[in-house]
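pls design
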């Protein structure tokens, strides 16, 4: 089995619609794909309606968290999307994205960059607006050559000249909410230092004690030494280890199935979850 447990669609900051994403996942030879848009489940219904035969969909979301001033992401799998407490927190995070993006536009204007809110809103479309949409606007204007080049101290990286904070969930509260909704929690790309500051690895032990199920080890932002070190941390703490592409369509260079999750780990994730269940495709529209 080929299993990719971290992808994004136009429901957040990917460039493929949910339907396009699941079709591409099948074409890429995946057996299982998780749709984990940022702080939203709005893409799930479309993905399920288009799910090709032979492909199983794991529903999920990537939750925006902050620990001691450092941004981190928590992948939540197979939770009940209508559970009130987790739904309210997702909406709180998502609703704060618009004023945050407007604030980044204002800062960029102050730096002499002629970006507009209308441009960013057009790029985001119906998705949850975020920094990648602002970064894409900078690419369109020729300010930076690629989206990744916008995530520097000069522009949009944490603490950068145009950075604006948003509401982010305390990760221990996120774990409580995910578990309360019957889901499974995996710390996404915990050592992706190229993105900016990361939480210390000592914090993983505290998160594990609070109910964290696993850490995402095999990821494009982790080199071989980092992956080996994280496997050691996971083994010591009894955590699951996952692998995934973090696919965003054309917005990033990663491809579907670039990294994958061991089938035994996937099986354990499905055994632990009770808020929702993987859905096998029957041939979508």
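designed seq:
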């Amino acid at each position: 089995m080929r299993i990719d447990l971290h992808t994004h669609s136009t429901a957040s900051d990917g460039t493929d619609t949910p339907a396009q994403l699941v079709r591409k996942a099948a074409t890429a030879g995946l057996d299982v794909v998780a749709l984990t848009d940022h702080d939203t489940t709005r893409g799930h219904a479309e993905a399920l309606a288009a799910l090709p035969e032979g492909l199983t969909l794991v529903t999920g979301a990537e939750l925006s968290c902050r620990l001691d001033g450092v941004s981190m992401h928590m992948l939540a799998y197979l939770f009940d999307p209508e559970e009130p407490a987790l739904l309210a927190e997702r909406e709180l995070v998502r609703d704060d994205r618009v004023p945050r993006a407007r604030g980044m536009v204002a800062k960029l204007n102050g730096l002499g960059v002629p970006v507009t809110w209308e441009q960013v809103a057009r790029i985001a479309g119906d998705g949850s607006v975020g920094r990648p949409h602002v970064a894409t606007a900078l690419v369109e204007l020729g300010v930076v050559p690629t989206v990744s080049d916008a995530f520097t101290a000069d522009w949009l990286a944490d603490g950068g000249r145009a950075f604006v904070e948003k509401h982010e969930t305390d990760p221990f509260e996120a774990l409580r909410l995910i578990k309360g909704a019957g889901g499974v929690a995996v710390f996404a790309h915990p050592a992706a230092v190229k993105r900016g500051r990361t939480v210390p690895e000592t914090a993983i032990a505290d998160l594990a004690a609070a109910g964290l199920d696993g850490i995402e080890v095999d990821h494009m932002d982790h080199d071989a030494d980092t992956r080996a070190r994280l496997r050691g941390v996971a083994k010591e703490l009894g955590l699951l280890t996952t692998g995934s592409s973090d696919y965003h369509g054309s917005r990033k260079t990663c491809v579907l199935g670039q990294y994958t999750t061991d089938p035994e780990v996937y099986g354990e994730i499905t055994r632990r979850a009770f808020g929702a269940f993987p859905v096998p495709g029957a041939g979508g529209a």
